[in-house]
Write a structure and sequence with these properties.
The chain contains 20 helices and 12 strands. By secondary structure, the protein is of the alpha+beta class. The protein folds into 3 domains: about 80 residues; about 110 residues, OB fold (Dihydrolipoamide Acetyltransferase, E2P), CATH 2.40.50; about 270 residues, no CATH class. It starts with a helix and ends with a helix.
Length: about 500
């Protein structure tokens, strides 16, 4: 019964948040009645299918949680309205603001996130969305620095992708609390920020990235930064498109699996401390690691899942992966409700975990002999993951590659080793560069091979199947069907 209450509460909360996205002021996405009816039917069927006892109490719980979720999205929309920055679009403005995240480095430039305090001398609300300013990579900025800049401001707008689908760039940016951009503004003045704990974390991350870039040659350095700490800032956009094209973009986003590998590294280091002390030490190191990464959405999501796993081990309780991912999902969506629809890394991470937890057992039943060996297990897990991630990848890309499946099997086998050895190389390299380079050498070779194979596959793919553009409602319908195909797996796991 506790599992029923847990999942019913979270699903109802998230459903309320999603529904509010369709009915908040200005009718941001339209056709709200379709979503409302769909959710009501969804909640009714799920309770009928799994035969929940005390249906009346559960139904009350659904209604209460749904309304709370609806209220949260409406509050978010009121707190961070769209229209505040519209009057400044395509105008030269003067901004006084504070850098609230570590700069993102690209070839020859850096992207600095500024939280405005004054615009053209007028005070801005503390809840104001941020502005992304592009500077040359020769400038040196730190978290907490106050900048006075002037330049032409542009509000982020929707655009049409190569496959003809309208990319809702405005809402995607909105979910990240970003208003717009200023390209290469004039820096009037920089006031160094006071030293605080966040500045320290930012400096540690900067040192980590500097060491990583010194040990590994681009583009391998950018790919490893994505795999180890979820930082894709230095990864070339063309290479990101290549990984999307062959269905490998999920390895670039920081996952609970990747971050747990890093935490296990700390457990082995502190093994002499004893079972409970090393677990506590690993959890502290993990929290420190997340803070260093920058408490991004990907790092926070992965960290929550990993901390749940270590807490279960500490209290000698079984760790239920699905509870970890649903809890992480709820926290991330609560922080930014629109992330559920517009944060691709969040979507892929959740769907991949869902596939492993619920679809993999169903496939294993059909191929029991195959599931008994390591290669067969990787094969079946790849099938499970692709089953739930392909619809959204096709929705985003407009096509599907038949070769993505074998490429996934080939690459995924190397990810654990790349993550652990790559992190070890950087960890040691911050102290002793020569030893770090020695450890990094085999990782560099493997990553270079992966990049070349992936690039060649994307360029010479004879199995690329184009798909006609379809709406978000069709996508939701596909996942609705997939969910009900996994009902038996859910019932078996929780004895419903």
């Amino acid at each position: 019964m506790s599992s029923v209450v847990f999942f019913t509460s979270i699903i109802s909360l998230i459903s309320g948040m999603v529904t509010a996205m369709f009915v908040v002021p200005n009718q941001l996405m339209g056709k709200s009645w379709i979503i409302i009816i769909g959710i009501i039917v969804f909640m009714y069927v799920i309770n009928k299918v799994i035969h929940i006892k005390n249906y009346r109490n559960i139904f009350i719980l659904i209604i209460v949680c749904f309304l709370v979720g609806f209220w949260r999205t409406d509050q978010f929309h009121s707190k961070y309205p769209f229209i505040v920055f519209n009057k400044y679009n395509n105008q030269t403005i003067n901004i006084v603001g504070v850098i609230n995240q570590s700069p993102t480095y690209k070839p020859g430039k850096q992207l600095v996130r500024i939280h405005p305090e004054l615009i053209n001398g007028e005070k801005v609300s503390r809840n104001s969305r941020d502005v992304i300013a592009t500077f040359s990579d020769l400038e040196h900025f730190g978290v907490g620095d106050k900048l006075i800049v002037s330049g032409k401001f542009k509000v982020r707008a929707d655009f049409q992708s190569d496959n003809g689908r309208v990319v809702e760039y405005r809402l995607m940016s909105y979910s990240r609390k970003i208003a717009g951009d200023i390209a290469f503004p004039k820096l009037e003045r920089r006031i160094p920020g006071r030293h605080n704990v966040w500045n320290i974390f930012a400096n540690v991350k900067q040192k980590f990235m500097q060491t990583l870039n010194e040990l590994f040659v681009a583009p391998a350095s950018g790919l490893l930064a994505g795999i180890i700490i979820g930082d894709t800032s230095s990864l070339d956009n063309n290479l990101l498109d290549v990984f999307r094209a062959v269905g490998l973009i999920h390895i670039v986003v920081l996952s609970g699996y990747n971050i747990t590998l890093v935490a296990n590294f700390f457990i082995r280091i502190f093994a002499p401390l004893g079972y409970y002390r090393r677990l506590v030490t690993a959890m502290i190191a993990l929290i420190f690691f997340i803070a260093v990464v920058g408490i991004s959405q990907t790092a926070l999501r992965a960290g929550i899942m990993a901390l749940c796993a270590f807490a279960a081990r500490y209290f000698i309780r079984p760790y239920i992966v699905s509870r970890g991912i649903f809890l992480a999902l709820l926290i991330m969506v609560w922080i930014s409700p629109y992330a559920l629809l517009f944060d691709l890394s969040l979507q892929l991470s959740f769907l991949a975990t869902f596939g492993i937890v619920y679809i993999f057992p169903l496939i294993s039943e059909k191929f029991p002999n195959l599931a008994e060996n390591n290669f067969g297990e990787i094969l079946l897990q790849t099938v499970a993951v692709n089953t739930v991630t392909l619809p959204i990848i096709i929705y985003q890309m407009g096509y599907f590659s038949l070769i993505s499946f074998p490429i996934n099997i080939l690459v995924l086998g190397f990810i654990p080793g790349i993550t652990i050895i790559g992190f070890l190389a950087v960890f040691i390299g911050t102290i002793l560069i020569p030893i770090g380079k020695l450890i990094a050498f085999p990782v560099q070779i493997i990553v270079d091979v992966i990049i070349k194979i992936t690039g060649w596959t994307a360029e010479h793919d004879p199995f690329k199947l184009p798909f006609p553009t379809f709406s978000l409602y069709w996508l939701l319908g596909i996942y609705f069907i997939i969910f009900f195909m996994t009902i038996r797996s859910v019932k078996n796991q929780y004895k419903l």
